[in-house]
Amino acid sequence: MLTIHELNQFYGQSHTLWDIELDVPTGQCTCLMGRNGVGKTTLLNCIMGALPLTSGEIIYRDTPLHTLPMEQRAKHGIGYVPQGRQIFPMLTVEENLEIGLPARPDRSRKIPGFIYELFPVLKEMRQRRGGDLSGGQQQQLAVGRALVIDPKLLILDEPTEGIQPNIVAEIGDIIGKLNHEMGMTVLLVEQKLPFVKKVADRFCILDRGRPVAKGSVDELSETLIREYLTV
C-alpha cells in the first residue's frame, strides 16, 4: 500500500534521513522502531507532507504521495495520529471529531457510528472539552479523530506514550480490530516491545536516520533489541 524508495531528508545542513527504503503491505501492521532521535517522527512528517523530501519518492496506492500538498493526503485515505495527541483542548469531544470530516471523500458531515462503538467513553463524554479528558481518553480521541475519514492507511506515532496500562491494552485491541477485522493497513511508531509483538506483523528499525533491520516481527531477535532498541 505504501512504498518509500531512496528517501533522503535534510534539516539545513544536517542529513537526517538516509536512503530510506520501506514497504507497508496492504492489510498488515508495520512498526517503525528505534531509539529516540533516530528519525522515526521525521519520516512520518515526510509521509504526511509536513516536511519536504530532499530526494526519493513515497508511493501510496500507485499515487506519488510526495507530489501532493499536505492537505490533500488525508483526502486520499490516510489517517494520522501525531505524537502528543494534539487535540484541541477548548473544543468538545464531538467538535474534535468533526474537524476531520471535511477530508472524507463522500463529504459526509456525520461522525461514523463505529467511532463510538470502538470508544464508548467518547460517546459518554462527547460534550466535554478535550482538555478535561484524561491522557488515555485524549489518546482515544486522537485515534477517533483520525478514523472519522474512514482511512485505508492509519499512521500512529507512539500511541502508548504516557498512557495508563489498561488504556494501552484497549488501544492494542482496537488496532488489532481495525487491522484484522476491518482490513485497515497500519503504520505504527512504537517502542514498547510487548505492544509491538501483540499488534504488529512487520518491523523496521532505524538507527541514525538509516534503516538497519526489517522483517517479520517473529524475526525481532534479542540481538537486535540489545543493539538498537535498549537504552
Question: Could you give the topology of this structure?
Answer:
Elements: E1 2-11, E2 14-24, E3 29-33, H1 40-48, E4 55-60, E5 63-64, H2 70-73, E6 78-81, H3 93-98, H4 113-118, H5 120-124, H6 135-147, E7 153-157, H7 165-181, E8 185-189, H8 193-199, E9 202-207, E10 210-216, H9 222-229
Parallel strand pairs: 3-8, 3-9, 6-7, 7-8
Antiparallel strand pairs: 1-2, 1-4, 4-5, 9-10
**Mean pLDDT across residues:** 94
Major sheet: arrangement of strands: 6-7-8-3-9-10
Enumerate the spans where pLDDT stays under 50 for 5 or more consecutive residues: none
Number of strands: 10
Share in β-strands: 25-35%
Can you tell me about this structure?
The protein is an alpha/beta fold. The protein has one domain (2-229): 3-Layer(aba) Sandwich (Rossmann fold). The protein has helices at residues 40-48, 70-73, 93-98, 113-118, 120-124, 135-147, 165-181, 193-199, 222-229; strands at 2-11, 14-24, 29-33, 55-60, 63-64, 78-81, 153-157, 185-189, 202-207, 210-216. The strands form two sheets. It has a six-stranded mixed beta sheet, with helices on both faces. A hairpin with a 2-residue loop joins strand 9 (202-207) and strand 10 (210-216). It is globular, with a radius of gyration of 17 Å. The chain starts with a strand and ends with a helix.
